[in-house]
Amino acid sequence: MNTLQTTLTALKSQLESQKEASKYYFDNVFSKEVFALEARIVEWFHNLTGDTYTIKLESGGETLQIFAPGENVENAWRHNGVTIYHYERYKEEAKARLSYYSTECEYDNVKVISYLKTVGKVAELLPQINDMMPVWKAEYKYYSEKRYVTFEQPIGQTEFAIRKTEQQIADETIAAYKQPGFKHTISSRTVCERDWDVSNYDCIEAYKLETKPQYFDLQHGRGRFDHVRVYAFEVVGAVKGGKIELNIMRPSCDPNQVLFTPIQVTKARFDDFIATVYYWETKQREEDNAKQTERYNNHVSRYTTIVEA
Fold this sequence. Notes:
Blueprint: H1 2-49, E1 54-58, E2 63-67, E3 81-89, E4 92-99, H2 110-124, H3 126-177, E5 183-185, E6 189-194, E7 207-212, E8 216-219, E9 227-230, E10 232-238, E11 243-250, E12 259-266, H4 267-301
Antiparallel strand pairs: 1-2, 2-3, 3-4, 5-10, 6-7, 8-9, 10-11, 11-12
Helix pairs in contact: 1-3
């Protein structure tokens, strides 16, 4: 377990370094390469139309977005641009396909008329665009594949190794949970609850953040109500009939008394119960407690006054 945990820590650290390197490369190399390619395409259109369009290559270079001069691309919808698709269809070779947004406009709608002019000019150039798309796409693909091989592929391999190591840790831990003699008290939960002793809902004291014992239901029969609440348990071991025997702690009317009761369950239900306990201890408890704490803090923050110095 210690060896696996050390390996997992090292892998997570490696992943963070890889992601930082990938982001740096994307911002400082890949994006600049693509921007330079798009600038050359802008120039190509300008030489043939006299207009300066905004160009965006997408989807591995198979999609070309062309925006009319003056269009605010940052806030533009996709249909504000003329789209050229260049990819193979079933039993068809790749060819440039023009997609545009059809609408009606009045004579003084400058923005839409500019868009329609762009559609017309791009349509006239469609045969030439069809010839150039493989060239632009190949260059984009070269930059993209270089980035993938150098950064994205290693990141994927590290993420796979992390998932594999986490699963190995889980398998070992769950196996230890199932060993005869194993004892465990389920970790408590944090709960944000309405305090009904406070009559005024709209006040800071209306909610309290409390720690309460956690339990899980253990099914021991076929009936709808054939289950017990388990707060703590001890694994006794396998018994006749392929069942597993446990000693379980059950709630008592006397807070000073702890009740442990032997119970037998099928192996399938035992496995499900152990998996539920493991998930709670390793992931769900932390997530649930964080949500309850956030809920409480959100309530309290409504009544907190920030005094500026």
